[in-house]
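Regression test case RT-17, inverse folding.

Input:
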């Protein structure tokens, strides 16, 4: 296995922005593993399955085909051959992904797919359990975080800039709820391991966070 770069952290901490920049600079692919869990949530929605129905979700993941494809450097998600990339970034699917990702059968299947990618090529991978579970043997492990308030502020700014409505209190509430689910789930929760370098981006620019990682790699 080549020495990939693993980045974990809570929702909205800037992981994916930082991970994409690093992948670009090192000229290696970037794998957004959250998009894979989001694809399972889209599948549940299409099959009319409640995100919280763990038995039904476990059965579902054994029946669907989830694939990652890179086109011109952009990651696309395929669900049973359908490109669902455009359906992944809604609040409903964010919440759904956080719920379906609690199911061990879902996590084990996604972990398998993620390891297949890292086995083929050196990658930058971001998610919630990459350092602790998917690629525990890589020497390059980072936990990118920021305060919940700062993450909510950034999201508000991002939404307003793209012309969408944004309510700070609602966004902060959603972030805190997702943090709780992701860190308190029984199976492979989000946490920063002892051998992982923690980078708090609350007072850092993207460039500073990127450099903090690059100086270690
Ligand atoms: O990174 P994201 O916001 O796209 O992830 C969506 C949800 O998927 C997140 O709330 C928890 C889950 N997830 C996970 O459990 N493990 C990963 N490696 C990536 C995401």
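Golden output:
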């Amino acid at each position: 296995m080549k020495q990939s770069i693993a980045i974990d952290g809570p929702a909205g901490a800037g992981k994916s922005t930082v991970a994409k920049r690093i992948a670009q600079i090192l000229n290696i692919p970037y794998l957004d593993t959250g998009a894979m869990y989001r694809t399972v949530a889209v599948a549940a929605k299409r099959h009319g399955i409640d995100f919280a129905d763990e038995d039904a979700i476990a059965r579902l993941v054994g029946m669907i085909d989830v694939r990652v494809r890179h086109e011109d450097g952009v990651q696309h998600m395929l669900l049973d051959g359908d490109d669902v990339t455009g359906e992944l970034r809604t609040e409903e699917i964010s919440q759904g992904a956080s719920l379906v990702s609690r199911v061990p059968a879902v996590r084990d299947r996604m972990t398998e797919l993620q390891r297949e990618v890292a086995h083929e090529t050196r990658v930058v991978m971001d998610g919630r359990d990459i350092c602790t579970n998917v690629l525990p043997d890589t020497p390059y492990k980072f936990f990118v975080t920021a305060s919940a308030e700062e993450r909510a502020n950034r999201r508000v700014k991002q939404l307003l800039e793209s012309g969408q409505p944004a309510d700070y209190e609602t966004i902060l509430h959603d972030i805190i709820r997702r943090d709780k689910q992701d860190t308190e789930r029984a199976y492979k929760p989000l946490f920063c391991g002892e051998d992982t370098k923690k980078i708090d981006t609350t007072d850092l620019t993207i460039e500073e966070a990127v450099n903090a990682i690059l100086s270690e790699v």
